[in-house]
Amino acid sequence: MPGSTAIGSKVTAAAAILIAACGGSTARSPSNAPAVAQVGSASPSVSPPPSAAPPEDSAGVPIAPDDPTWGRRAAPVTIVEFADFQCPYCAQAESTVARIRDMYGPDVVRIVWKNCPLPFHQSARPLAEAAAGVHALAGDAAFWSFAGAAFAAPLQGVTLDKEQYAGWAKQAGVKDVDALLAGLKTDEWATKVDADLAEARAVGVQGTPAFFVNGVRLVGAQPFDTFRAVIDQQLTAARAKVAAGEALERVYAVLSKENVAAQPPDHEDDDEKPQDTKTVFNVPVGTSPVRGPATALVTIIEFADYQCGFCIHAEEVMKELRADYGDKLRFVFRNEPLPFHDRAEPAAEAALEVRAAKGDAAFWAMHDALLDDSPNRDLGDDALAHLAETFGAKPDKVRAAIGKHTHAADIDADEETADDFQVDATPHFFINGRRLVGSQPKPAFVAIIDEEIAKAQALLAAGTKPTGIYDAMVKSGVGAPEPVSVDLKDLPLGDPAKGPAGAKVTIHEFADFECPYCQRAEPTLKQVAARFGDKVRFVWHDLPLAIHDDAVPAARAAREARAQRGDAAFWTLHDRFFAPGARLDRASLDEGARALKLDMTKWAAALDGDAHMPELQADQAAADALGFQGTPTFLVVPAHAKAGYVVVGAQRYAKFRKLIDRAVSEAGR
After folding, report:
1. Gap between the Cα atoms of 432 and 423, Å rounded
2. How much is the average pLDDT of 529-540?
3. Are 188 and 133 in contact (CB under 8 A)?
4. Rounded Cα distance, 394 and 403, in Å
5. Phi and psi for 426 in degrees, rounded to 5?
6. How many of the other CB atoms lie within 10 Å of CB of 368?
7. Is the dihedral of CA 85, 89, 92, 94 positive or negative?
8. What is the residue-wise DSSP string for 610-665?
9. How far is the C-alpha of 456 from the C-alpha of 471, rounded, in Å?
């Protein structure tokens, strides 16, 4: 029943033992654990009870009494999150944070919010102050509800008015909304946001979201499994502290100090190592929009996304470079709409429709307007159509281009090139083929540009034609790599499949029902199915990982459904298991079986025994033979071929599409 799930069924044994040792409960009943606040809901949070516990201002990551908190003060693990309400990566991380709350509960994990509004997000600072005001006026529950509403709204590139804040605050439970508006007018909560920002600098936060799990730093929207590994390790560490005589209320302060001291500053982490800006890549210009003469000494190819705040920020540097270098620079734009930006692709369609109507000059004017850091920036269909009209396109054609994906071929080509050259973030630049990733400061560009100008001038002096400079600079550069392929070895016959047996391409997926990356790949596979139809057949191979307690039971359950009702039943459970918020505990598995009207006596015998283990073992042996160790891993195999192309991880649709197109071509030979 909701609200009464035993923690021991989901949390590690270490957590259960620790809770019991400290006088806690291993069950989250309605009396001691209110429902977890979901994004956009008004569910109450859990505030620590009045306590004489020592202050936490000397912890490795300090916690102030006025910090919004979910969970109990005595929880053995505390997660401090530095975040920005307008940051898309923070919004992306919300589902993971919700899953942590649901799995561990407020007796085990406490979550503390710190504001870290980034300067190039127009609404981030006002939203942070409004949220601080909501917390001050109405407490933790109201704060988390307000935060949920903010993250549920499309805030990228948008400036909000105070009436919107007031509406969210009223919905969250703030009774005196006038007091909130008055406080915002007088900057009453600005000092709180400033204090959070100062703490962010003090602990080395470089971007958002940044999490500290008992002081252990996790940067970015990390997957749930990454958090779980750290949380479980910290539960073990907390148990050791309590066993040694440390008061539970002191565990966070002690562990966070130790953990912060034991790790290097953020800029020394692997993710922050200096970029390789020396290697040259032979990135094609193709038929992309160009600004600047063909005789330019330096060509800058940018892969960008019109909904990306970092791309907006980088555009200011591009303007300065154009002013400083003039005709020495040529700019090439290639689209890379990120999957979690729902307005990036429509904006790209609108810009390309302007180009189709009026040429490159009009395209660049539209491009500049789309990346203008304006408080009135709007990427809705009507706004895009109106904006495009100012640059010569017909509004009806712009709306049609957005609705029908008129320029999908051009965007697809850009995405395939991005995949060829490992472009996995925006903005992403190649300066005469030299890679520079992110919204870098102007000096980072200038250093490379000046070096490339000197090289180009030397080529001109040696007789290279002015229009051939870029090709000469990159001709020996690294090109698009051939896709990784493996010989097929002993793939099990008769595993669950869907799609025609005579399909031109078969996609074999080695996966785990509890793997978040496998779940993340599902929308992409549905996109593949919609695009390629009967040309593609899908085959499932179980590869449950040892770190996932529910993976093997779920795999056996899906196999039992297949044994009783065929492949259709298997895929029904497959989709159920990968649905957002799905559970894989025995009660949930049984519920799925009943929905399929399976024979529950046979079902219980299969799940309580060791049925279907030979099938799982055969898949494991095949994965070992192929060298597959993680999930999901895919094989894209042309019909009648003896080898397949490997895709590791939840890759984007562009990567699958490129390999499938190639495999379809090979199958037709």
Report:
1. 16
2. 96
3. yes
4. 14
5. -125, 150
6. 14
7. negative
8. TTTHHHHHHHHHHHHHHT--SSSEEEEEETT-SEEEEEESS--HHHHHHHHHHHHH
9. 11
Q: 439 versus 325: which is more confidently predicted?
A: 325
What percentage of the chain carries pLDDT values higher than 90? 62
Q: What is the DSSP letter of 274?
A: P
In sequence order, what are the beta bridge partners of 507?
538, 636
Specify the pLDDT at position 546.
81
For 431-471, the pLDDT digits (tens) are 999 999 888 889 999 999 999 999 999 999 999 999 999 99
219 to 93, 141, 633: CA distances (angstroms): 11, 26, 25
Q: Convert 172-232 into a string of H (helix), E (strand) and C (coil).
A: HCCCCHHHHHHHHHCCCCHHHHHHHHHHHHHCCCCCCCEEEECCEEEECCCCHHHHHHHHH
Mean pLDDT of 161-180: 87
Is 269's pLDDT higher than 60?
Answer: no
The dihedral built from the CA positions of residue 649, 652, 653 and 659, taken in this order, carries a sign that is negative
Which of 157-161, 270-274, 375-379 ranks highest by mean pLDDT? 375-379
Q: At what angle do helices 224-243 and 248-262 cross, to 10 degrees?
A: 120
- Tell me the CB-side half-sphere exposure of residue 121, using CA atoms within 13 A: 25
User: In whole angstroms, what is the distance from residue 126 CA to residue 128 CA?
Assistant: 5
Nearest to residue 80, comparing CAs of 49, 55, 48, 111?
Answer: 111
Q: CA-to-CA distance for 433 and 6, rounded, in angstroms? A: 56
Strands (E), 278-328: 290-291, 298-304
- What is the model's pLDDT at position 225? 86
- How far apart are alpha carbons 359 and 256 in whole angstroms? 57
Q: Are 600 and 593 contacting, i.e. CB atoms less than 8 angstroms apart? A: yes
Asked if residue 342 lies in contact with residue 154, where contact means CB atoms within 8 angstroms, the answer is: yes
pLDDT digit string, tens, across residues 326-341: 999 999 999 999 776 7
Nearest alpha-carbon partner for 149 in 42, 267, 11: 42
